[in-house]
Amino acid sequence: MTEHYRITLLPGDGIGSEIIAVMVDVLKTIAPKFDLEFTFQEALIGGSAIDATGNPLPEETLNTCRESDAVLLAAIGGYKWDNLPRHQRPETGLLGLRSGLGLFANLRPATILPQLMDASTLKREVVEGVDIMVVRELTGGVYFGEPKGVFETETGQKRGVNTMAYTEGEIDRIAKVAFETAQKRNGQLCSVDKANVLEVSQLWRDRITALSSQYPDVQLSHLYVDNAAMQLVRAPKQFDTIVTSNLFGDILSDAAAMLTGSIGMLPSASLGASGPGVFEPVHGSAPDIAGQDKANPLAQVLSAAMMLRYALNQPAAAQAIEDAVQTVLNQGYRTGDIMSEGQQLVGCREMGDALLRALNSINN
Ligand SMILES: NC(=O)C1=CN([C@@H]2O[C@H](COP(=O)(O)OP(=O)(O)OC[C@H]3O[C@@H](n4cnc5c(N)ncnc54)[C@H](O)[C@@H]3O)[C@@H](O)[C@H]2O)C=CC1
Ligand SMILES: CC(C)CC(=O)C(=O)O
Ligand SMILES: [Mg+2]
């Protein structure tokens, strides 16, 4: 029986429309082979939404997302909107989408593919075999805490304020996701915080430690975030699952991206307790290469694979996409960000065409 899914597409800004187009072709190609049918509905977010409606997250977009089975987002942001007031910025739209859909858990896998061992800026022996899952808290911490703003002091100076805050409930629910993720992997969980300085991090550490007694099969460790950043580039293979707050996870997952060769390779899944998840690359809108057919579409395509696996329970279709990515890399196709000697430099569109050829060679 054919399974039918309603998918919201959010191309956003910059390279968004280029990489989403490749991903949609991939999904359309895979659908009949696995008895799937997708209805795609495009909606506005970020700078393109500001230009069209004055609002980085129109209510209509949130409603469309809520009515769908899953959301595929590319990225938002760009120079054009950098000087708008905070509440009108593209990034505020993205934060609104995450909080509006209750997406408190962001899973960011950083796995090095054997074909890309020489694309990393780190030595082959350091990155070979890296397989890390960063579980980033996504709707709390300093990106959302109150008070925030720029205020005037008694002496007339401007003072910028953001607040890093977590409740026990917010920590407990992300901890549960992280422990369960570690259980399904190698059973090692490293919690990253700054408990030597920040009260909010001490609460984080205390709650994670308290909850660990419910997961005797998971080996829990703690690192301060400065050391964790250093360890990630010194000896990344020591990590299995990492759980951390919104800001630290944002930073550490970009660093982890470079272990795999490029941020253009890293997908992610943003999940809540119920309702549709958002599947999105870790990278941003890359305005420096937008409109030039230079973007690597693989993080976006692998985000669609995460959607098939995590939201739609279609692991065989997810695997087919992941296999196609390996095939095109085996064939030597490389966008600029993962290019190395002896390989064939291609643009975003050409990489997409190679993926479609690989998928079309799958037997029905
Ligand atoms: N989830 C999202 O929508 C995010 C949005 N942003 C926004 O994106 C804009 C640009 O931010 P940046 O700090 O420059 O981060 P970025 O991730 O967009 O780009 C960083 C560097 O990586 C390269 N890059 C990123 N994705 C790539 C891909 N698929 N293929 C090849 N190269 C790629 C870019 O060309 C750039 O040199 C900003 O407006 C920022 O706020 C940033 C991060 C996440
Ligand atoms: C653009 C920000 C809102 C977030 C970010 O950098 C990210 O989620 O990776
Ligand atoms: Mg980021």
Automatic annotation (TrEMBL):
Gene from which the chain derives: leuB
Predominant location category: cytoplasm
Lineage: Bacteria, Bacillati, Cyanobacteriota, Cyanophyceae, Desertifilales
Annotated catalysed reactions: (2R,3S)-3-isopropylmalate + NAD(+) = 4-methyl-2-oxopentanoate + CO2 + NADH
Cofactor: binding details: Binds 1 Mg(2+) or Mn(2+) ion per subunit.
Residues given in the record as Mg(2+) binding sites: 226, 250, 254
Compartments where found: Cytoplasm
Protein name per the record: 3-isopropylmalate dehydrogenase
Domain Isopropylmalate dehydrogenase-like: 6-355
SUPFAM superfamilies attached to this UniProt entry: Isocitrate/Isopropylmalate dehydrogenase-like (SSF53659)
Molecular function (Gene Ontology), one example: 3-isopropylmalate dehydrogenase activity
Family matches, as SMART domains: Iso_dh
Biological pathway: Amino-acid biosynthesis; L-leucine biosynthesis; L-leucine from 3-methyl-2-oxobutanoate: step 3/4
Site for Important for catalysis, residues: 143, 194
Its EC number(s): 1.1.1.85
